[in-house]
Specification:
single chain; two-stranded antiparallel sheet; alpha/beta; six-stranded parallel β-sheet
Length: 185
């Protein structure tokens, strides 16, 4: 169980923050037990979310930690990728973008560059939350809140792979006014 894994020291120590962003979360409806992805993606592509990701990702406290950023829609991921390309600090590697339709060869190249430290930030939409593991990835910026325990657990565990004593950090960015709370770590 999760409790046993924590007790046995099989997981990285975890620190979590939850930031509620002033956005129109009340526009997001629950459909089939989870948030409507299109509505959530539109709300979470607003300027306050883009700026919040930039601030948390490149804050001196997190700047040197390899990061995974989860997005709910492809459009959100593309918009955020473009924003970070323009607003990342000088000398910071360009973030990598991995989507469901990213060709295998390109995906492998991006992930290999991440493992070598040539890329320090990966943006994705549901692709790397299952079956991908990188012990060096210790920072998760979650812009894809979910009411699904399976989706949430898979996403959160990407940074919990133990790597010596490295601490995992999870930042959840939520729009104010969601109709229900998502699954939290």
């Amino acid at each position: 169980t999760l409790d046993e894994a924590v007790t046995l020291g099989l997981l990285a120590p975890l620190r979590m923050w939850c930031a509620e962003v002033d956005a129109q979360g009340s526009r997001v409806h629950v459909v089939a037990g989870d948030y409507d992805e299109a509505e959530l993606g539109r709300v979470m592509t607003a300027a306050p979310f883009l700026r919040a990701v930039e601030w948390f990702r490149y804050h001196p406290y997190n700047a040197l930690i390899p990061a995974l950023i989860t997005c709910v829609t492809r459009q959100q991921a593309h918009d955020l990728h473009g924003y970070l390309q323009k607003h990342r600090p000088k000398g910071t590697p360009s973030p990598g973008l991995v989507l469901g339709d990213t060709p295998s060869r390109e995906r492998e190249a991006v992930l290999a560059a991440f493992e070598r430290g040539k890329i320090d930030t990966l943006l994705q939409v549901g692709v790397l939350t299952e079956g991908w593991n990188s012990p060096r990835c210790k920072l998760l910026l979650d812009l894809a809140p979910s009411m699904s325990r399976v989706r949430a657990t898979q996403k959160f565990f990407r940074v919990l792979t133990k790597r010596e004593d490295a601490e995992a950090r999870i930042y959840l960015l939520l729009p104010k006014g969601l109709p229900a709370l998502p699954i939290l770590p």
